[in-house]
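Shift notes (night). Ran Integral membrane protein while the centrifuge was going.
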Amino acid sequence: MPTRRAWEHEIEPWFIRNGLPYFVPSERARAKDALRPRRALPLLALVVLAAVAASAALTWLTEEASAAPATLTTVGLLAAAAYAVTALRARPILGWALRRTRSSLRQLLPMVTRALPLLLLFVTFLFINAEVWQLSAELDGPVMWLTVLLFAVIAVGFLLVRLPEEVDKVDDFIDLDLVRRATRRTPIEQPVAELLDARGEELPLDEYGDVPGYERWNLILVLLVTQVAQVLLLSLAVLGFFLVFGGIVMEAGVQEAWTAQDRVHHLPYLDNLSVELVQVSVFLASFSGLYFTVAVMTDETYRVQFFSEVLTELERAVGVRAGYLALRGAAEPATVDDGATPATD
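Came back to this:
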Protein backbone atom coordinates (compact mmCIF):
# COMPACT_ATOMS: atom_id res chain seq x y z
CA MET A 1 0.00 0.00 0.00
CA PRO A 2 1.38 3.52 -0.79
CA THR A 3 2.71 5.55 2.10
CA ARG A 4 0.40 7.98 3.78
CA ARG A 5 2.21 10.98 2.35
CA ALA A 6 1.68 9.87 -1.26
CA TRP A 7 -2.08 9.33 -1.17
CA GLU A 8 -2.77 12.14 1.27
CA HIS A 9 -1.15 14.70 -1.00
CA GLU A 10 -3.44 13.47 -3.78
CA ILE A 11 -6.73 13.24 -1.88
CA GLU A 12 -6.55 16.64 -0.16
CA PRO A 13 -6.77 18.59 -3.46
CA TRP A 14 -9.66 16.28 -4.39
CA PHE A 15 -11.52 17.31 -1.23
CA ILE A 16 -10.97 20.98 -2.03
CA ARG A 17 -12.09 20.63 -5.66
CA ASN A 18 -15.29 18.95 -4.49
CA GLY A 19 -16.23 21.69 -2.05
CA LEU A 20 -14.96 19.92 1.09
CA PRO A 21 -12.12 22.15 2.38
CA TYR A 22 -12.79 21.37 6.05
CA PHE A 23 -12.00 17.72 5.38
CA VAL A 24 -8.36 18.86 5.00
CA PRO A 25 -6.69 19.37 8.41
CA SER A 26 -4.67 22.43 7.35
CA GLU A 27 -7.70 24.20 5.86
CA ARG A 28 -9.78 23.35 8.91
CA ALA A 29 -7.12 24.78 11.23
CA ARG A 30 -7.05 28.08 9.30
CA ALA A 31 -10.83 28.38 9.48
CA LYS A 32 -10.81 27.72 13.22
CA ASP A 33 -8.15 30.38 13.70
CA ALA A 34 -10.19 32.90 11.71
CA LEU A 35 -13.09 32.50 14.16
CA ARG A 36 -11.00 33.28 17.22
CA PRO A 37 -12.18 36.51 18.93
CA ARG A 38 -8.79 38.22 18.56
CA ARG A 39 -9.21 38.11 14.78
CA ALA A 40 -12.96 38.29 14.30
CA LEU A 41 -13.95 41.02 16.77
CA PRO A 42 -11.81 43.88 15.34
CA LEU A 43 -13.14 43.16 11.85
CA LEU A 44 -16.68 42.99 13.19
CA ALA A 45 -16.28 46.43 14.78
CA LEU A 46 -15.02 47.89 11.49
CA VAL A 47 -17.96 46.38 9.57
CA VAL A 48 -20.47 47.79 12.06
CA LEU A 49 -18.95 51.27 11.80
CA ALA A 50 -18.92 51.11 7.98
CA ALA A 51 -22.52 49.85 7.87
CA VAL A 52 -23.76 52.58 10.22
CA ALA A 53 -21.97 55.28 8.23
CA ALA A 54 -23.31 53.98 4.90
CA SER A 55 -26.87 53.65 6.20
CA ALA A 56 -26.81 57.17 7.68
CA ALA A 57 -25.51 58.62 4.41
CA LEU A 58 -28.09 56.85 2.25
CA THR A 59 -30.93 57.74 4.61
CA TRP A 60 -29.91 61.39 4.41
CA LEU A 61 -29.58 61.33 0.63
CA THR A 62 -32.81 59.44 -0.11
CA GLU A 63 -34.83 60.79 2.82
CA GLU A 64 -36.26 57.30 3.31
CA ALA A 65 -36.07 55.75 6.76
CA SER A 66 -36.26 52.25 5.26
CA ALA A 67 -32.84 52.80 3.64
CA ALA A 68 -31.11 52.42 7.02
CA PRO A 69 -32.07 48.80 7.87
CA ALA A 70 -31.72 47.76 4.23
CA THR A 71 -28.19 49.19 4.04
CA LEU A 72 -27.17 47.74 7.40
CA THR A 73 -28.38 44.31 6.35
CA THR A 74 -26.76 44.46 2.93
CA VAL A 75 -23.36 45.60 4.21
CA GLY A 76 -23.44 42.97 6.94
CA LEU A 77 -24.28 40.18 4.49
CA LEU A 78 -21.59 41.28 2.01
CA ALA A 79 -18.97 41.50 4.76
CA ALA A 80 -19.91 38.08 6.16
CA ALA A 81 -19.77 36.53 2.67
CA ALA A 82 -16.37 38.09 1.96
CA TYR A 83 -14.95 36.87 5.27
CA ALA A 84 -16.33 33.38 4.73
CA VAL A 85 -14.87 33.12 1.23
CA THR A 86 -11.42 34.36 2.31
CA ALA A 87 -10.57 33.80 5.97
CA LEU A 88 -12.98 30.93 6.61
CA ARG A 89 -11.68 29.05 3.55
CA ALA A 90 -15.15 28.69 2.05
CA ARG A 91 -14.03 29.68 -1.44
CA PRO A 92 -13.83 26.03 -2.62
CA ILE A 93 -17.44 25.54 -1.53
CA LEU A 94 -18.51 28.58 -3.56
CA GLY A 95 -16.43 27.50 -6.56
CA TRP A 96 -17.89 24.01 -6.45
CA ALA A 97 -21.39 25.47 -6.16
CA LEU A 98 -20.87 27.71 -9.21
CA ARG A 99 -19.56 24.79 -11.26
CA ARG A 100 -22.44 22.57 -10.21
CA THR A 101 -24.99 25.29 -10.92
CA ARG A 102 -23.51 25.84 -14.39
CA SER A 103 -23.64 22.13 -15.13
CA SER A 104 -27.21 21.88 -13.83
CA LEU A 105 -28.49 24.56 -16.20
CA ARG A 106 -29.18 21.86 -18.77
CA GLN A 107 -31.47 20.25 -16.19
CA LEU A 108 -33.37 23.50 -15.64
CA LEU A 109 -36.14 22.73 -18.12
CA PRO A 110 -36.93 19.24 -16.71
CA MET A 111 -36.77 20.66 -13.18
CA VAL A 112 -39.06 23.54 -14.04
CA THR A 113 -41.59 21.32 -15.83
CA ARG A 114 -41.79 19.06 -12.76
CA ALA A 115 -42.00 21.78 -10.13
CA LEU A 116 -43.77 24.70 -11.77
CA PRO A 117 -47.26 23.41 -12.70
CA LEU A 118 -48.61 22.92 -9.18
CA LEU A 119 -46.64 25.88 -7.87
CA LEU A 120 -47.96 28.23 -10.55
CA LEU A 121 -51.48 26.94 -10.09
CA PHE A 122 -51.27 28.14 -6.50
CA VAL A 123 -49.26 31.35 -6.97
CA THR A 124 -51.17 32.59 -10.03
CA PHE A 125 -54.25 33.07 -7.86
CA LEU A 126 -52.18 35.53 -5.84
CA PHE A 127 -50.95 37.26 -9.00
CA ILE A 128 -54.50 38.02 -10.16
CA ASN A 129 -55.42 39.41 -6.78
CA ALA A 130 -55.89 43.18 -6.34
CA GLU A 131 -54.78 43.15 -2.69
CA VAL A 132 -51.41 41.62 -3.63
CA TRP A 133 -50.90 44.33 -6.27
CA GLN A 134 -51.76 47.07 -3.80
CA LEU A 135 -49.40 45.63 -1.20
CA SER A 136 -46.50 45.18 -3.62
CA ALA A 137 -46.96 48.55 -5.32
CA GLU A 138 -46.69 50.36 -1.99
CA LEU A 139 -43.32 48.82 -1.18
CA ASP A 140 -40.41 51.11 -1.96
CA GLY A 141 -37.04 49.71 -3.04
CA PRO A 142 -35.47 49.19 0.41
CA VAL A 143 -38.63 47.64 1.87
CA MET A 144 -38.96 45.29 -1.12
CA TRP A 145 -35.32 44.24 -0.64
CA LEU A 146 -35.93 43.59 3.07
CA THR A 147 -39.04 41.56 2.20
CA VAL A 148 -37.07 39.38 -0.21
CA LEU A 149 -34.34 38.97 2.41
CA LEU A 150 -36.95 37.97 4.99
CA PHE A 151 -38.23 35.17 2.75
CA ALA A 152 -34.62 34.11 2.08
CA VAL A 153 -33.70 34.10 5.77
CA ILE A 154 -36.74 32.00 6.64
CA ALA A 155 -35.89 29.53 3.87
CA VAL A 156 -32.23 29.28 4.91
CA GLY A 157 -33.22 28.94 8.57
CA PHE A 158 -35.57 26.10 7.68
CA LEU A 159 -32.81 24.35 5.73
CA LEU A 160 -30.32 24.79 8.58
CA VAL A 161 -32.77 23.00 10.89
CA ARG A 162 -33.53 20.12 8.51
CA LEU A 163 -30.21 19.52 6.70
CA PRO A 164 -28.25 18.36 9.79
CA GLU A 165 -30.80 15.55 10.07
CA GLU A 166 -29.90 14.44 6.54
CA VAL A 167 -26.19 14.40 7.40
CA ASP A 168 -26.89 12.33 10.51
CA LYS A 169 -28.90 9.81 8.49
CA VAL A 170 -26.07 9.24 6.02
CA ASP A 171 -23.23 8.83 8.51
CA ASP A 172 -25.27 6.28 10.48
CA PHE A 173 -25.03 3.69 7.66
CA ILE A 174 -21.33 3.45 6.77
CA ASP A 175 -20.20 -0.02 5.70
CA LEU A 176 -17.51 -1.61 3.53
CA ASP A 177 -19.59 -1.53 0.34
CA LEU A 178 -20.38 2.17 0.73
CA VAL A 179 -16.70 3.05 1.24
CA ARG A 180 -15.72 1.01 -1.84
CA ARG A 181 -18.37 2.71 -3.98
CA ALA A 182 -17.58 6.17 -2.69
CA THR A 183 -13.83 5.97 -3.30
CA ARG A 184 -14.11 4.78 -6.90
CA ARG A 185 -12.46 7.17 -9.35
CA THR A 186 -10.76 9.04 -6.51
CA PRO A 187 -7.03 9.25 -5.68
CA ILE A 188 -7.45 6.78 -2.80
CA GLU A 189 -9.41 4.12 -4.68
CA GLN A 190 -6.53 1.60 -4.85
CA PRO A 191 -5.10 2.00 -1.32
CA VAL A 192 -8.58 1.89 0.21
CA ALA A 193 -9.47 -1.27 -1.74
CA GLU A 194 -6.25 -2.93 -0.58
CA LEU A 195 -6.88 -1.89 3.02
CA LEU A 196 -10.49 -3.14 2.98
CA ASP A 197 -9.41 -6.47 1.45
CA ALA A 198 -6.73 -6.94 4.08
CA ARG A 199 -8.33 -5.56 7.24
CA GLY A 200 -11.86 -4.52 6.36
CA GLU A 201 -13.59 -6.37 9.19
CA GLU A 202 -11.22 -4.86 11.76
CA LEU A 203 -11.77 -1.22 10.81
CA PRO A 204 -14.00 0.92 13.08
CA LEU A 205 -16.10 2.27 10.21
CA ASP A 206 -18.78 3.51 12.59
CA GLU A 207 -16.19 5.79 14.14
CA TYR A 208 -14.82 6.92 10.78
CA GLY A 209 -18.31 7.51 9.43
CA ASP A 210 -19.23 9.88 12.25
CA VAL A 211 -18.77 13.44 10.94
CA PRO A 212 -18.40 15.98 13.77
CA GLY A 213 -17.55 19.65 14.11
CA TYR A 214 -16.30 21.67 11.18
CA GLU A 215 -16.51 18.74 8.78
CA ARG A 216 -20.17 18.26 9.60
CA TRP A 217 -20.80 21.94 8.93
CA ASN A 218 -18.92 21.61 5.65
CA LEU A 219 -21.42 18.95 4.54
CA ILE A 220 -24.34 21.07 5.73
CA LEU A 221 -23.02 24.06 3.76
CA VAL A 222 -22.60 21.91 0.65
CA LEU A 223 -26.23 20.77 0.95
CA LEU A 224 -27.35 24.31 1.70
CA VAL A 225 -25.61 25.80 -1.34
CA THR A 226 -27.01 23.04 -3.56
CA GLN A 227 -30.56 23.65 -2.42
CA VAL A 228 -30.22 27.42 -2.60
CA ALA A 229 -29.01 27.11 -6.21
CA GLN A 230 -32.05 24.99 -7.14
CA VAL A 231 -34.44 27.38 -5.39
CA LEU A 232 -32.81 30.39 -7.04
CA LEU A 233 -33.18 28.85 -10.51
CA LEU A 234 -36.82 28.04 -9.87
CA SER A 235 -37.52 31.51 -8.46
CA LEU A 236 -35.98 33.11 -11.55
CA ALA A 237 -38.21 30.91 -13.71
CA VAL A 238 -41.27 32.05 -11.74
CA LEU A 239 -40.14 35.68 -12.06
CA GLY A 240 -39.76 35.31 -15.82
CA PHE A 241 -43.16 33.65 -16.15
CA PHE A 242 -45.01 36.43 -14.32
CA LEU A 243 -43.20 39.17 -16.23
CA VAL A 244 -44.21 37.57 -19.52
CA PHE A 245 -47.71 36.63 -18.37
CA GLY A 246 -48.33 40.03 -16.82
CA GLY A 247 -46.90 41.85 -19.82
CA ILE A 248 -49.44 40.06 -22.02
CA VAL A 249 -52.66 40.12 -19.98
CA MET A 250 -52.29 42.90 -17.37
CA GLU A 251 -53.20 46.06 -19.23
CA ALA A 252 -52.18 49.43 -17.83
CA GLY A 253 -55.75 50.30 -16.85
CA VAL A 254 -56.11 47.11 -14.82
CA GLN A 255 -52.79 47.74 -13.10
CA GLU A 256 -53.86 51.28 -12.20
CA ALA A 257 -57.16 50.01 -10.77
CA TRP A 258 -55.55 47.20 -8.79
CA THR A 259 -52.76 49.36 -7.38
CA ALA A 260 -55.15 52.26 -6.62
CA GLN A 261 -52.80 54.65 -8.40
CA ASP A 262 -53.50 57.36 -10.95
CA ARG A 263 -50.92 55.89 -13.30
CA VAL A 264 -48.35 53.10 -13.36
CA HIS A 265 -44.70 53.62 -14.19
CA HIS A 266 -44.34 51.70 -17.45
CA LEU A 267 -41.56 51.52 -20.00
CA PRO A 268 -41.80 53.59 -23.19
CA TYR A 269 -43.93 51.82 -25.83
CA LEU A 270 -44.54 48.95 -23.36
CA ASP A 271 -47.57 50.06 -21.39
CA ASN A 272 -48.11 46.69 -19.69
CA LEU A 273 -44.51 46.27 -18.50
CA SER A 274 -44.43 48.50 -15.45
CA VAL A 275 -42.44 48.93 -12.27
CA GLU A 276 -45.48 47.71 -10.35
CA LEU A 277 -45.57 44.51 -12.41
CA VAL A 278 -41.90 43.92 -11.62
CA GLN A 279 -42.56 44.46 -7.91
CA VAL A 280 -45.44 41.99 -7.84
CA SER A 281 -43.39 39.45 -9.81
CA VAL A 282 -40.38 39.78 -7.50
CA PHE A 283 -42.59 39.47 -4.41
CA LEU A 284 -44.31 36.31 -5.69
CA ALA A 285 -41.05 34.79 -6.99
CA SER A 286 -39.40 35.16 -3.59
CA PHE A 287 -42.49 33.72 -1.90
CA SER A 288 -42.41 30.82 -4.37
CA GLY A 289 -38.77 30.18 -3.45
CA LEU A 290 -39.75 29.86 0.22
CA TYR A 291 -42.63 27.54 -0.67
CA PHE A 292 -40.41 25.35 -2.84
CA THR A 293 -37.74 25.16 -0.12
CA VAL A 294 -40.24 23.78 2.37
CA ALA A 295 -41.81 21.45 -0.21
CA VAL A 296 -38.51 19.84 -1.20
CA MET A 297 -37.75 18.90 2.40
CA THR A 298 -41.24 17.81 3.45
CA ASP A 299 -43.07 16.50 0.37
CA GLU A 300 -41.93 13.03 -0.65
CA THR A 301 -42.58 13.61 -4.36
CA TYR A 302 -40.48 16.76 -4.50
CA ARG A 303 -37.87 15.13 -2.27
CA VAL A 304 -37.34 12.20 -4.64
CA GLN A 305 -37.16 14.45 -7.70
CA PHE A 306 -34.93 17.22 -6.36
CA PHE A 307 -33.03 15.87 -3.35
CA SER A 308 -31.99 12.33 -4.27
CA GLU A 309 -28.98 13.46 -6.32
CA VAL A 310 -27.84 15.69 -3.48
CA LEU A 311 -28.04 12.79 -1.02
CA THR A 312 -25.93 10.67 -3.37
CA GLU A 313 -23.20 13.32 -3.34
CA LEU A 314 -23.45 13.55 0.44
CA GLU A 315 -23.10 9.79 0.77
CA ARG A 316 -20.02 9.83 -1.43
CA ALA A 317 -18.38 12.59 0.60
CA VAL A 318 -18.92 10.69 3.87
CA GLY A 319 -17.65 7.43 2.30
CA VAL A 320 -14.48 9.05 0.91
CA ARG A 321 -13.80 10.66 4.27
CA ALA A 322 -14.22 7.29 6.02
CA GLY A 323 -11.74 5.72 3.60
CA TYR A 324 -9.34 8.61 4.11
CA LEU A 325 -9.45 8.27 7.91
CA ALA A 326 -9.10 4.49 7.65
CA LEU A 327 -5.89 4.94 5.67
CA ARG A 328 -4.58 7.46 8.18
CA GLY A 329 -5.44 5.17 11.06
CA ALA A 330 -3.75 2.20 9.39
CA ALA A 331 -0.55 4.10 8.52
CA GLU A 332 2.56 3.11 10.42
CA PRO A 333 3.80 5.73 12.91
CA ALA A 334 6.96 6.10 10.90
CA THR A 335 5.07 7.25 7.83
CA VAL A 336 2.83 9.78 9.58
CA ASP A 337 4.26 13.21 8.84
CA ASP A 338 3.95 16.49 10.74
CA GLY A 339 2.39 14.80 13.77
CA ALA A 340 -1.02 14.76 12.08
CA THR A 341 -3.74 12.61 13.62
CA PRO A 342 -7.13 11.47 12.38
CA ALA A 343 -8.80 13.86 14.81
CA THR A 344 -11.35 16.08 13.15
CA ASP A 345 -11.51 18.95 15.62
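The beta strands are 266-267, 270-274. The radius of gyration is 25 Å.
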